[in-house]
Structures are given as C-alpha cells and as structure tokens.
Amino acid sequence: MSHAARVRAYYENNTRLFLRLGKDQGTQNIHQALWAEGITTQAEAVNYANQRVLSEVRRWGSLLSPGEPVSVLDLGCGVGSGLFFLDTHYDGPARFQGITISPTQAAIAQQRGKAVADSRVQVLEGDFLNLPETGPVHVAYAIEAFLHAADAARFFQQVGRRLVKGGRLLLIDDFLSPTGAKPGLSAEQQRWLDDFRAGWLAGSLLPVEEVSALAGLAGLKLVQDTDFTPLMALGRPRDRLIGSMMKVAGSLMRRSTYFQSLTGGYAKQQCLKQGLVQYRELVFEKGR
Predict the structure, then answer these.
(1) What are phi and psi of 21, to 5 degrees?
(2) Confidence tier at 246 by pLDDT (50, 70, 90)
(3) Domain chopping of the chain, boundaries
(4) What is the DSSP string of 76-111?
(5) Helix H or strand E encompassing 262
(6) May I ask the CATH architecture of the domain 3-176+202-235+277-286?
(7) How many Cβ atoms are within 10 Å of 204's Cβ, its own excluded?
(8) Torsion of CA 231, 237, 243, 245, to 10 degrees
(9) I want to staple 45 with a disulfide (CB 3.0 to 4.6 A). Which of 33, 128, 191, 235 is the partner?
(10) Within 10 Å of residue 140's Cβ, how many Cβ atoms?
(11) pLDDT digit string (tens) for 84-112?
C-alpha cells in the first residue's frame, strides 16, 4: 500500500471518531488548540490557526482591486472547517477551495456547504501531490497536513505552480527541532520519534532548514518562522491516561487505526517535551 493510500485509509477509518470524540467545541477542526495571549476558550484556541490564515487573507484582500476575489486554497482541508471559518469571517469577495485525500471528509464538507446559504466554499477529493486545476491562488495553507506528504519537494512544486507572484503559503505543523535532527539520539528519543512518525503517518517530519531549502527550489522564500510550541497544552489528563494505557497494551493499541492515532499523539507529546519536535508556523512567499 502506498503512503497516500495509507493516509487515505487512516482518515477514512478515523474521521467520524475524531469529530465525535475530539475536544473542538463544535468547530469540527481536526488540529491543535493553541492558547495564545487573550484566548480564553477551547473554541478560540482551536480556531487560532484559522485566525492566522484569516489575517493573511485580509492582507491580500487589501492589495487587490475592488471587487477582485482573494483565491484561497486549503491543502489537506479535512471536513472544511478552516474554509467555513474563513467564509464566515471574511466579508470581501473570495473563493475558498480545499483538497482532502479522504472521500468521507470531502462528503462531509460538501454536505456542510449545502447547509450554508451562499457558501463560497468548494471542497474536492484529491491528493495535494497531484493537485487538480485550481486557477491562480493568492493564499495557500496547510494545517497539520504537510506532515503527511510522502514527497515534500513535490508538495512545494505543486503549490508553487498555483501561487501568483507574491502569493503566500502558510504551513502550521510539526517540524524536527535542531536537537531532533542531530545524530546520536538516545534509544528512547529515537523510539519516540519513530512512534510519532508511524502513528501519524508523518512522511515529512523535517527540520525547518530542509523544508526551507525544498521550498526554495520551487521559488518560495521563507519570510516568517514562528514557534507555536509554547502555546500548546501538554500533559493533559487525557494524555496521561493514554500513556498509562500504552504501558499496559501498547502493542494491541497499534493494531487499531484509531488507537494508532492516540499512540502517535502521545509520542508527539513526548517529542515536544524533550525538545525533539517543535510546532511552528512557516510562511513562504513566491518571488515577484
């Protein structure tokens, strides 16, 4: 089975459970809550990454001629929650497109779109390593999706071809820290990284320097790099419970795709705590 097929199966098996059991306060986001300054609720924390994208959409909207729509592309959009957030909060003319590898996620997103009057959201099933025709794009983004890419270089090539000159790509995801990228890790550290990669199907868990170099080959320059790791809530009671379960039944848990996600998430927590991985926002701009 190819890496892409494994990622598709992972979300086909897990999406409805993620939505049912996740703590997203009804936002239907399948990504990390970030507790930035001034945030007081779980819903705000889960939408913080979407707010970052919204700021870039608004910036682009201010640069375009009156009436010209901002074109936005979500790479790995899940059930479209980020796109619907943008559609609700951005008043200017816009076109919001999303790509998900999961037929189940695409169907849920399309059903949500039908329930929203005058929705500007379009979600397609597809692979972001083989993007369908999208038209020129001003803002592209991937929240906890780039990590799944089997070929990071091709990811940037695909996005670079769609972005207009000056267009931007935002990646909000996990990256190897300088410590995690060094040779000579302890057996325990290497095990946590291996478990994270296996549990979350992380084909592109890479250091920022390597990611920046690959993006550069596609004409994209890193213009902003922000560490969001301090904004994460680590060691929650739920995480401690999963850790205890892994000690007793770790091998059995890995046989279930849902529990695979939990074991991968717990390994990620250990990687973050030990400074092996960082959760960052990288912003790239296409040359003018």
Answers:
(1) -105, -10
(2) low
(3) 3-176+202-235+277-286
(4) T-TTSHHHHHHHHH--S-EEEEEEES-HHHHHHHHH
(5) helix 257-273
(6) 3-Layer(aba) Sandwich (3.40)
(7) 21
(8) -150
(9) 33
(10) 29
(11) 999 999 999 999 999 999 999 999 999 99
Nearest to 282 by CA among 155, 182, 196, 185: 155
CB 73 within 8 A of CB 97: yes
Tell me what percent of the chain is helix, strand and coil, each rounded to the nearest 5: 50, 20, 30
CB atoms within 10 A of CB 89: 13
Residue type present at position 193: L
Phi, psi of 144 (to 5 degrees): 55, 35
* CA 94/CA 69 separation, integer angstroms: 4
One-letter amino acid at 69 equals P
Distance CA 206, CA 127 (A): 20
- In angstroms, the CA 55 to CA 16 distance is 30
